[in-house]
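If you are new to this repository, start here. Below is one unmodified record pulled from the training split, so you can see the exact layout before writing a loader.
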Amino acid sequence: MSLEPGAVLFWVVDNGSSHRGKAACDRLTARCSNAIMVYTPVHASWLNQVEIFFSIVQRKVFSPNDFTSLDQAEDRLIAFERRYNQTARPFKWEFTPADLEDLLARIERHEQNEHSEQRTGCDYQPASRPAAA
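And here is the target side for that same chain:
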């Protein structure tokens, strides 16, 4: 990858296991020292949609890889695109706004618990008791 001197490349990725963590960042900067990996939010559906589509293309068009020329691969891809556009339906997402609120509340509780443990130096949490009637 060639860039103008001083240019910065922002590489946008989701939180998939293949590009999560320090090792992934190190791999990227080893190949392109002025690249910065930027993560989308965990449930960034636009990027997930793109990845799902490319996964479908890989499985339906390019596997097995038995092309005799790039023209043949291009023809198969164009034929797939035409068929897919005629039959495609929106992906049904099951992560609702209520699920998001629940997740954020759990994260907040977890962060508060960690903060409390750091202040007290104690990781013991007594069992909660049912409220008196």
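Two things worth knowing about this chain: The first strand starts at residue 9 and ends at 13. The helical segments are 22-31, 45-60, 70-87, 97-120.
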